[in-house]
Every structure is written in structure tokens, then in C-alpha cells.
Amino acid sequence: MAEQTHALTVWRTEHSLLTLEDLASAVGLHPELVDVFVRYQLVEPTVHTGSCALFPTSSVERLNRILRLRHDLGVNLAGVAVILEMMERVERLQTELRQWRERSGQRER
């Protein structure tokens, strides 16, 4: 069993994945609060290994956004979900627009 735990630790370290406890520690939260955010699907693990959920390092930034929305603006969890979805949509559209402009600029030359 210790060998499996070690192998999992090495694998998640190589793939820059965090356990729920690591994620909570990285943003200074109690793991139970992070678990609430997971249940509301505000933060989602990328890998489930039995009883262990693993999160990408980008979840740290996402949790910080959630905390800013909650504490600075007083947004409830349902509102946080909507705002995060809209922010991600805007970011995707900005990326698409930038790519479109780059392609259009290359055609004009």
C-alpha cells in the first residue's frame, strides 16, 4: 500500500496535480470549504483515483477568484457560478478574436 501511495504522489507531482488538502492549503482555506466548492461544481477535479480527487494547479487561481467574488462583492455561490462561466466565455472569445485578427493580418500581407 505504501508503494501505491508513493507512486500516486510521484505521478501527481509530475502532472502538477493537487489533492483537495493541497489545494485548500495553497489558498489558505479549510479542506471542508473547498469540498463545498467542489460539490457546487465551482472547482472540478481532473482526475479521480479511487477516493482521491486531484485538481490542476489552475484551480488555485480559480479558488482565488471565487474568494474575491464572495468576500469583496458578497456574491452567493449560484452567482459565483454564473460569473465564472461568463468570465471564461469572455476569455475564450477574446482568444478567438485575437487569433482571427492574427490570421486576417497575415492574409493582408
What does this structure look like?
There is one protein chain. The protein is mainly alpha-helical and 109 residues long. Helices cover 72% and strands 10% of the residues. It is built from five helices and three strands. It has helices at 2-14, 20-27, 31-39, 58-73, 77-108; strands at residues 17-19, 47-49, 52-56. Strands 1-3-2 form a three-stranded antiparallel β-sheet. Helix 2 (20-27) packs across helix 4 (58-73). It is globular, with a radius of gyration of 18 Å.
What labels would you give this structure?
109 residues, mainly alpha, 5 helices, 72% helix, 10% strand
What multimeric state do the chains show? Answer: single chain
| Percentage beta strand | 5-15%
Number of helices, where a helix is a run of at least 4 consecutive DSSP H or I residues: 5
Overall geometric form: globular
Major β-sheet annotation = 3 strands, antiparallel
Helix percentage? over 70%
Q: Roughly how many Å apart are the termini? A: 62 Å
In spatial order, strands of the major sheet run 1-3-2
> What do the pLDDT scores average to?
86
Unreliable residue stretches: 4-12
Order of SSEs = HEHHEEHH
Radius of gyration: 18 Å
Structural class determined from secondary elements: mainly alpha
Topology, number of strands = 3
